[in-house]
Design a protein that fits this description.
The structure holds 2 protein chains of 2 kinds. Chain A is built from 5 helices and 6 strands, in the order βαβαβαβαββα. By secondary structure, chain A is α/β, with parallel strands linked by helices. Chain A has a single domain, classed as Rossmann fold (3-Layer(aba) Sandwich). The longest helix of chain A is centred in the last third of the chain and has 21 residues, at 118-138. The termini of chain A are far apart. Chain B is an alpha+beta fold. Chain B has 5 domains: 8-110 and 590-623, no CATH class; 152-299, Dna Ligase, domain 1, CATH 3.30.1490; 303-419, ATP-grasp fold, B domain (D-amino Acid Aminotransferase, Chain A, domain 1, 2-Layer Sandwich), CATH 3.30.470; 447-570, 3-Layer(bba) Sandwich (Glucose Oxidase, domain 1), CATH 3.50.30; 642-861, no CATH class. Helix content of chain B is 37%, strand content 19%. Chain B contains 26 helices and 31 strands. In chain B, the strands form 5 sheets. A 9-stranded mixed β-sheet of chain B has the order 25-23-24-26-27-28-29-31-30, with helices on one face. An 8-stranded mixed β-sheet of chain B has the order 15-22-21-17-18-19-20-16. A 6-stranded antiparallel β-sheet of chain B has the order 10-9-8-7-13-14. In chain B, α2 runs antiparallel to α3 (89-106), α19 (680-691) packs across α23 (811-827) and α22 crosses α25 (839-851). The two termini of chain B are 34 Å apart. The chains are: A alpha/beta, B alpha+beta.
Chain lengths: 139, 863
């Protein structure tokens, strides 16, 4: 159970990128995702997150919306451009219907309002992972 | 959601000689107060909920919650100003004080809090870290929350040490001496340190402070026979014993005669500028401004044996153990390695069996010298080869170590001593930080891959995150708490605030029913006790006394010990309780949530005594209810609303004011019959009172004890209390009821709005007072709480007052609940007179449900 293999042995657990300008959020999410077996990298500014993503894309991106510099919506677009298969989850403290609509339109898998429970975000990620696995099988 | 007539044009605020505001207008304000009060309480509960660790929240959340709460509290005060003629200037002033304190906290500037010359150690908790330094604040918490022994004494706060440095211009001097030094030139650094130290020791201490410290030191040092014991002065800096432990970096001065205390304080302050301490801070990026120092002053303990221990030995990660180092005499040489020490390795579970030991030849020991200071002296021949701890002492040490570890959720490095009376005294505790290379940390934990049997998974809500391992102890009656084993996991059907009395000793809590927003959950968070509540039926799955592992991070419970989980938790890189946001929220809640104003009859129940937002909301709520009753009793107040006397066959003595534009028609102008009550909540309530058949016409025989208690009480309360007996009031509309009932000697308030929109539906029930002594009244309160809890109410019991809230149920279910409240009102009329024994609390609750069986909703009745 210490390795990153799935129980079935087929392929690695997805790699996750977490981006939020509040350090506390990434500090809480990193160990939670790692405990669940995901390889996790965290960033508190969108520029370095994007640089890292360009260098090596991630399977899943969890990003905040409101940030200095490039905001979450723009980051989401870039990610989808670079890697259309990457699953994205938006976490935000400014949840409005419009921003939710826009992020879904831009290809986000889900939209989670802050503050949220760790169990909830893990749940969303698990669903996303399942959906992605399904897509791979179809392909 | 207003069910009230459109009356806003009647609101004539600000005009002194305005015509009397119609009752309906005042009532609208009253309604607004109730709503705001509920909203404010919800925000407070949400905020406290976030401390449990299950939520990810950020600074923005904290700011926003404070903002929303402050807004509601402010508007509550404004509402009260409309409702009552009295001037609310004092209330606004109290609000302003609290808001300012919250803003200061939020501004993030870490300020040295204003403090007296000395602060007693007995009053300290973790929240005093800024004033008393981390080390002393931790000791305070260990003492007050965990109930372990720590030395008494006082602390000279950071503010005082700062004042001393400031007044002597030492800050500038220190800055100038250290400027440009990077530590590479040892000689220059040593020279600077020596100069700073000399300056500090030579500088005069503020006169008044010196006098005050001396006085406190003398009182502390004085023995009953008039002689004086020596004192120990210990550093307690802001970040000491936090993420960076500063272990051994700052100075302690031991066995100081009380008359020399002030000089010793200066010694400790100067210790912050020793070369090692300066390097340590620089290496960790501490700014000069971040080094505020406080100094603890404690009596020297007549130590027989002392030492240090690790609650979780870092040497052998594959074998969890407690590691103890010990030597005769005082603690210092064990810690700094100046003398030989015994080593013991113990199991981490009761009875903490000794796994191995290594007894050193202890030729020397440290003792207090006769005059002052300490010295290493030859150890007595007989003691040199003897083990310096027995199994009983070792067990007590391990037990204390694990209790502290559990609370701080980090392995601990603890300094301790046993005195002549064989009492274990904790001298210091700090987190033990693991190095990765030494301690390979598992990268993930997959419950499915574990060999351990899962008892249940994915049930309930986390009240406090964490991992707990221990024996299960099933609690079904309060007596079951009496023999609660140390380190056990409490498993119970319901949450109960009564569990507080064993929370210091428990490892974890599991309950079948209960909410993470309840009272018990808040207490569990205070004790940082991993807890899962509302798991549904689980008790039949767990055997009394069996060892279980509770993972309150994934809501999973295993049979047996799952070591990996504990190891995972203890080695987590960041403990969320150490995060700035957690500490900020906790400090803010200290200014928001504690309720100081408990007794409305106390003279302290006044605006000037409001210390928190909760105090203010409580005060306003109470004042508003009283005002409404006062209004209802004066013809003046009733202007514009016609009251009708209710005739329903039961002597409720109720007047009803109907606020609807077209009040219900009635046959007689001043009388309303049960059939004519077209307010749905009122009709449901009356049906409950009458058709439940629980109204006992015959008074229950009052035994002598309770009669005497009632006599004392009648004379003891304010005269206004008795005048109102027999005057009950309901203000209603079709979908709304506000009912104030005084029956016998107790007081019931029901506020209900029940309509078709499920989100507007809310029911609030409050019950207090009673004819008998506090014991029976609180039994009755517990009985009512039990009943309400089963009816899905969120219940809060404070002494003999019970608050129950339920909302957002469908209309039919809400009305069913009101019917049951009617039945309950009838049932509890004389309940406290009956509850002679504790066991009768459960019996009475059962009796109620038996009698009300035909009124219960299917789901409730099926339980």
């Amino acid at each position: 159970m210490l390795d990153n293999e799935r129980p079935g042995g087929e392929g690695k657990k997805p790699r996750i990128l977490v981006l939020d300008d509040e350090p506390i959020v990434v500090k809480r999410l990193k160990p939670a995702f790692e405990k669940a077996g995901y390889e996790t990298e965290t960033f508190t500014d969108s520029a370095s997150a994007l640089a890292r993503f360009t260098q090596r894309p991630f399977d899943i991106v969890i990003t905040d919306l409101k940030m200095e510099g490039m905001d979450g919506m723009a980051f989401l677009e870039k990610v989808k451009e670079l890697s259309p298969d990457t699953g994205c989850v938006i976490i935000t403290g400014f949840a409005t219907l419009d921003t939710a609509k826009e992020s879904f339109h831009k290809g986000a898998f889900d939209f989670v309002a802050k503050p949220f429970k760790l169990a909830d975000i893990l749940d969303v990620t698990k669903r996303l992972e399942e959906k992605m696995a399904g897509r791979h099988e179809e392909a | 959601m207003s069910a009230l007539p459109n009356i806003s044009n009647f609101l004539r605020m600000g005009r002194r000689k305005a015509p009397a505001t119609p009752f309906a207008a005042r009532f609208k304000t009253f309604k607004s107060i109730l709503e705001r009060n509920n909203l404010a309480l919800t925000i407070m509960a949400d905020m406290s909920d976030k401390l449990g660790g299950e939520y990810v929240f950020d600074r923005r959340y904290i700011e926003e919650a404070c903002e929303r709460l402050g807004d509601q509290v402010f508007k509550l005060i404004s509402d009260l100003s409309i409702l009552t003629p009295a001037d609310q200037a004092e209330l606004f002033a109290a609000f302003e004080r609290i808001r300012q304190a919250i803003d200061d906290e939020l501004s993030g500037k870490r300020d040295i809090p204003d403090a007296p010359w000395t602060m007693p150690l007995s009053g300290l908790t973790l929240d005093h870290g800024d004033a008393a330094g981390k080390k002393m604040a931790v000791l305070g918490e260990i003492r007050s929350v965990l109930g372990l022994n720590a030395p008494e004494g006082f602390v000279i706060p950071t503010a005082v040490c700062e004042r001393f440095l400031e007044q002597n211009g030492l800050h500038e001097f220190i800055r100038s001496r250290f400027e440009g030094l990077d530590g590479s030139e040892a000689k220059a650094l040593n020279e600077a340190c020596r100069e700073v130290r000399e300056r500090v020791l030579d500088a005069p201490f503020p006169k008044e402070g010196a006098k005050e410290i001396l006085r406190a030191a003398e009182a502390l040092a004085k023995r009953p026979d008039g002689s004086h014991r020596g004192l120990a002065l210990r550093s307690s800096a802001w970040e000491e014993d936090g993420e960076s432990t500063f272990a051994g970096q700052y100075a302690s001065v031991l066995n100081v005669p009380f008359a020399e205390t002030v000089n010793a304080v200066k010694e400790v302050i100067a210790g912050a500028y020793a070369p090692e301490a300066w390097r340590y801070r620089r290496d960790r990026g501490f700014l000069e401004r971040e080094t505020a120092m406080a100094v603890g002053c404690q009596p020297m303990i007549d130590s027989v044996v002392s030492g240090a221990m690790y609650s979780y030995a870092p040497f052998a990660p594959e074998e969890e153990a407690v590691y103890v180092n010990a030597a005769w005499g005082l603690c210092a040489p064990v810690v700094d390695g100046r003398s030989e020490a015994d080593a013991f390795i113990l199991e981490r579970r009761p009875p903490y069996a000794l796994r191995s030991r290594e007894i050193a030849i202890k030729t020397r020991m440290m003792t207090a010298s006769p005059e002052k200071g300490v010295a290493l002296v030859p150890a007595p021949e007989s003691k040199r080869n003897a083990a310096c701890l027995n199994q009983d002492q070792l067990s007590r040490l391990a037990e204390a170590a694990l209790r502290i570890e559990r609370y701080f959720k980090r392995p601990q490095d603890i300094e301790w001593t046993f005195d002549r009376k064989d009492r274990l005294i904790i001298l210091q505790s700090r987190p033990l930080i693991f190095r990765e290379e030494r301690f390979s940390r598992p990268r993930a934990f997959d419950p499915a891959a574990s060999d351990a049997e899962i008892i249940f998974s994915g049930k309930g809500s986390t009240a406090q995150r964490g991992v707990a391992i221990g024996r299960a102890h099933l609690v079904s009656r309060p007596e079951d708490l009496d023999d609660f084993p140390d380190g056990a996991i409490l498993a119970a059907r319901h949450t109960s605030p009564q569990f507080a009395r064993i929370m210091g000793r428990a490892h974890g809590i599991l309950t079948e029913a209960g909410s993470p927003a309840g009272h018990m959950a808040a207490l569990a968070r205070e004790y940082r006790l991993p807890s899962i509540v509302g798991c549904g039926p689980i008790l039949h799955l767990i055997k009394e006394g069996e060892v279980i592992t509770v993972d309150a991070t994934q809501n999973t419970v295993y049979r047996g010990v799952v070591k990996e989980l504990r190891r995972y938790e203890l080695t987590e890189e960041a403990v969320y309780e150490d995060s700035y946001e957690y500490r900020l929220l906790r400090r803010l809640l200290g200014k928001i949530a504690p309720l100081g104003l408990a007794d409305p009859n106390s003279p302290d129940f006044a605006p000037s005594f409001c210390r928190t937002y909760h105090d203010i909301t409580r005060y306003i709520h109470e004042r508003a209810v009283r005002e409404l009753i006062r209004l209802s009793e004066t013809r003046h107040g009733l202007l514009g609303a016609a009251a009708k006397r209710l005739e329903c066959g039961v002597p409720l003595d109720l007047s009803v004011i109907d606020l609807d534009d077209e009040p219900c028609p009635s046959a007689k102008p001043n009388v309303m019959t049960k059939a004519e009550a077209c307010s749905e909540p009122l009709a449901a309530f009356l049906e409950g009172v009458i058709s439940s058949g629980m109204w006992e016409a015959q008074p229950v025989a009052v035994d002598m004890g309770s009669f005497m208690a009632s006599v004392t009480r009648t004379f003891g309360t304010a005269p206004s209390g008795t005048e109102k007996i027999g005057r009950n009031l309901a203000v209603v509309s079709r979908q709304y009821m506000n009912l104030n009932l005084r029956l016998g000697y107790h007081f019931t308030l029901i506020d209900a709005y029940i309509g078709d929109n499920i989100n507007d539906n809310a029911l609030y029930f409050r019950f207090m007072g009673g004819v008998t002594g506090i014991m029976r009244r609180s039994r009755r309160a517990r009985c009512i709480a039990k009943i309400l809890d089963r009816l899905d109410f969120r219940v809060d019991v404070r002494g003999d007052m019970v608050l129950g809230r339920v909302k957002k149920f469908h209309k039919d279910r809400m009305l069913a609940k009101i019917r049951l409240l009617g039945a309950l009102t009838a049932f509890t009329r004389q309940l406290d007179v009956k509850l002679r024994r504790e066991a009768e609390v459960d019996e009475a609750a059962k009796d109620f449900f038996d009698k009300a069986a035909n009124m219960m909703e299917e789901r409730d009745a099926g339980q």
